[in-house]
Amino acid sequence: MPKRPTGSESGRLTEVSPPSVLPVAPPPAAPPPWPGPVAPGIGAPGDKGEPPPRTVGDAGTWLLIAAAGFAGGQILSSVILVAIASANGHLSDLSALAAQTVPPAWVVVGGLVGLWIGFVGAVFMASRFRGTRSVVADMGLRFKRWDVLIGIVAGLFGQYVLLTLLYLPWEHVDRNLSRELQQPAKHLTGGFPGFDLAVIAFLTVVIVPVVEELFFRGLVLRGFLRLFGRAGRILGPLLAVTSTGIVFGLAHAELLELLGLAAFGIVLSVMAYKFKRLGPCIFAHATFNLVAVLAIAYPSGIVR
Length: 304
Prior knowledge:
By secondary structure, the protein is mainly alpha-helical. The protein has one domain. The protein contains 11 helices and 2 strands, in the order ββααααααααααα. It has helices at 56-88, 94-99, 105-130, 135-139, 147-171, 177-181, 183-189, 194-227, 235-251, 258-275, 279-297, and strands at residues 4-9, 12-16. It has a two-stranded antiparallel ribbon. A hairpin with a 2-residue loop joins strand 1 (4-9) and strand 2.
């Protein structure tokens, strides 16, 4: 193709070549769809990659670690109690003391501490070996401004509405049901002097909710969410929150309270899945426990 003159430079015509046509890069491919439901405590899909546990295999490992943590906590509780009983001269009657309606405070605290070590140890192990090594991020240990109010409402609903509706039909069969349902709380908090009761109440209302929510609504629920993720966007989370609630109820080893604890565990699991953090669950759990402690500490009817 002949070149065409375009102008002059020092009295001479100059020729310019036609502009080159550069290839246009194709648009970037769309990211792959999010593989499964969003686990609680993690932002929107794609923010920082998939939330742990990232695979079904990792989810199975998390649940195995949770089972090992629960079993290890039970064993450690027994070891701690034996050590304390040996030190204070009650080793021979330790079983009888633990079986009392209101056991000594050191029996209650020793048993709780051992179990908590197992729970927390399992959470850290799962995060360390099959997570991001950040317990806060992996378990969704985050709080927002309205979590206190949401939690208080949910905790009161659990005690005064949910449990009432669940056990109301059975009260016509067993007239002593209300008193029987209070026995586990009395075993934990009843009959202690002022200082011991304050310590137990603090542990029950402040420490227990954090530890148990990390374990059940963090470790266990997130494991089930990934495990059941392929069941669908509705059925998968439904199976996960239901399974977590049942495990929560069974872990307390109280047959009479199993129905109520499992139901409240499901409520907490739904909250963790809905809000994607543990803040509301922790405050709901704390409120639920506080009502139970006050009902035992003030049987004259201040709470009920």
